Amino acid sequence: MNRTLILLFHPDITKSRANAALAAAARQLPDTEVIDMQARYPGGQVGMFTDGAAEAEMLLGASRIVLQFPIQWYSSPALLKAWQDAVLTRMYYVKASTEGARLAGTPLMIAATAGNVAEAYGPGGQNHYTISEIMTPLKAMAHRCGLPWHAPHILFAAGHLSDGALADAAAHYVTALKRFAAWAPAPVAVSPSILQNEGV
Ligand SMILES: Cc1cc2nc3c(=O)[nH]c(=O)nc-3n(C[C@H](O)[C@H](O)[C@H](O)COP(=O)(O)O)c2cc1C
């Protein structure tokens, strides 16, 4: 199995320029599937049991996972949180030994677009905090779930790119996805904490 699963969380991909271009480029890659999660869950609700089994199966069929989204208010769109609450809670708390333990070890990469420029992110910049700091909750999620964390792929100034710059960004994304596919992190031992039910 060599399959890259890209879960795209854009509130309205029909109005997207950046994420639409990146997703279109990614879809050209072999062994790569892009799932428009907003189209899958137009109401924004993800059910732990009604939808969770299919979501878990999709994740367990992947060799690596990309979560792609536009940064909104220094975070990810609400649907990604709804997906975490339903799918990861199911996999790591309700069915930790049969689902979570099997997903552990699957590499994870964040692919995010930001409206602001790179210099805005950091002390002295308009947004003060670095992208790495803003990614902390997702990094903590990856750590808890035993998903090896690959350096995120960030496209800055995503709302202001010329057609040429957007084409370059799409090509860079393809390169990043290939690099991610070639990445071989150290195997993750299933730690007792992955199997620990914390009372959900
Ligand atoms: C509600 C909302 C909040 C946003 N918050 C941020 C933000 O915190 N930081 C940032 O750099 N850009 C922010 N943006 C800009 C988006 O990240 C940017 O428009 C998007 O990445 C462009 O991608 P798209 O063409 O696929 O929509 C925000 C946009 C919206 C609509």
UniProtKB/TrEMBL annotation:
The keyword Oxidoreductase applies. Keywords: Oxidoreductase. Gene3D superfamilies: 3.40.50.360. The keyword Oxidoreductase applies. One of its GO terms (molecular function) is FMN binding. SUPFAM superfamilies: Flavoproteins. InterPro entries: Flavodoxin_fold, Flavoprotein-like_sf, KefG/KefF. Pfam families: Flavodoxin_2. It comes from the Bacteria. This is NAD(P)H dehydrogenase. It comes from Pannonibacter phragmitetus. The lineage of its organism: Bacteria, Pseudomonadati, Pseudomonadota, Alphaproteobacteria, Hyphomicrobiales.
